[in-house]
Design a protein that fits this description.
348 residues, alpha/beta, Rossmann fold, seven-stranded mixed sheet, 39% helix, SAM-dependent_MTases_sf, methyltransferase, Methyltransferase, methyltransferase activity, DNA_methylase_N6_adenine_CS
Length: 348
């Protein structure tokens, strides 16, 4: 095979690779196995594509190892790039690659060594993908991962600046944190997540340094964040309490963007009535998300996208009694005599 021929074959594999890695439902054990099997096929095809390109470069540079000089077809290369797969024995287990070649031939070992860096990167992505699939079926209370497109919308609405400090108080498996890293990579993020399995996924993704604790509801709020983004659990009105508590972490002028239950502003009951009154007092805004927004997460629940802005630092008039009468104190300013009425100070 000539170098040009190998590169052409590699390019033609892209359509098959894209198909194998396309989004598939994985909200049941059977669908999860089908999705996992497609990914294994995609990994094999992608490895063959990389091998063909590497072989083309090595041939042109006259550095091709002798044990690989006899390769005459894509099929032969594809056989060398086949991975050893281990299975747990479960009916729905598609298996997982070990990172080693299925063949014990010298040609396979040499080729896999040449592709080692690429392999490590792909295996780590596959490990995360499997952990995410397992988490979806683990029935973790309140866990419905935010779809990537919706997470991107939340971050865009939050208008996160490069130096904004961001809080994600119910991080789950990290969809919103991922979106912040993509949209505003220099913005520091603090995350909380109560479920150990999901905390482990956050660690796998490289978000371990962002984790500040497990249950943010048990932490005393401090006004230190410019932005709060969140998709809290909906069950039993938990989202109401979580949003109000998270708002307490905002600095003046900050913004909270949350995904909430679709009936959060309509349902009757003491907690809902109190939340609605609070929400209106903060001039909050809400928009109903399109039906099926969480379909890929295995639920048809309706949801709102909610925005609540914390007011900027406002001038507050403090009246203090003195021996000579009342004095009006504007924090940060000098005292003004009682003869100057508040209305004339143009505070508001």
């Amino acid at each position: 095979m000539t170098p040009n021929r190998m590169r052409t074959m590699a390019d033609k594999l892209q359509h098959q690779i894209d198909d194998k890695f396309s989004d598939r439902l994985s909200n049941t054990p059977r669908r999860q196995r089908q999705a996992a099997a497609a990914v294994l096929d995609g990994l094999h095809l992608e490895r063959t594509q990389s091998a063909l390109r590497w072989l083309a470069d090595a041939t042109e540079a006259n550095t091709l190892p002798s044990c690989l000089a006899g390769l005459r077809s894509k099929k032969a290369v594809h056989e060398l790039t086949r991975a050893r797969i281990v299975r747990s024995g479960g009916y729905y287990d598609a298996g997982v690659e070990t990172g080693e070649p299925a063949s014990e031939s010298e040609a396979a070992r040499v080729l896999w060594h040449a592709l080692a860096d690429r392999q490590r990167e792909r295996l780590e992505k596959e490990r995360i993908r499997r952990a995410l699939d397992d988490a979806r079926l683990a029935r973790i209370p309140g866990y419905f991962p935010t779809p990537a497109n919706l997470a991107a919308t939340v971050v865009q609405v939050a208008e996160i600046g490069p130096r904004d400090c961001v809080l994600e108080p119910s991080a789950g498996s990290g969809a919103l944190v991922d979106a912040v890293v993509s949209e505003a990579p220099s913005a520091p993020v603090t995350a909380y997540e109560i479920a150990p399995r999901l905390r482990a996924i956050l660690e796998m993704k490289g978000h371990g340094a962002a984790l500040a604790g497990s249950d943010f509801m048990e932490v005393t709020p401090r006004q230190v964040y410019d932005r709060v983004i969140m998709n809290p659990p909906f069950e039993n009105g938990q989202d109401l309490a979580h949003v109000r508590r998270a708002f307490e972490w905002l600095m003046p002028g900050g913004r909270l963007v949350a995904i909430m239950s679709g009936n959060a502003l309509e349902r009757s009951g003491r907690r809902w009535d109190e939340f609605r009154a609070w929400f209106e007092s903060k001039n909050g805004k809400a928009e109903l998300l399109p039906a099926g927004s969480f379909a890929e997460s295995g639920t048809g629940v309706s949801a709102l996208l909610v925005v609540v802005d914390a007011p900027a630092v406002a001038a507050r008039l403090v009246v203090e009694p003195t021996r000579s009468g009342l004095q009006y104190v504007l924090p940060g300013c000098e005292k003004v005599g009682a003869s100057a009425p508040p209305a004339q100070m143009d505070l508001f």
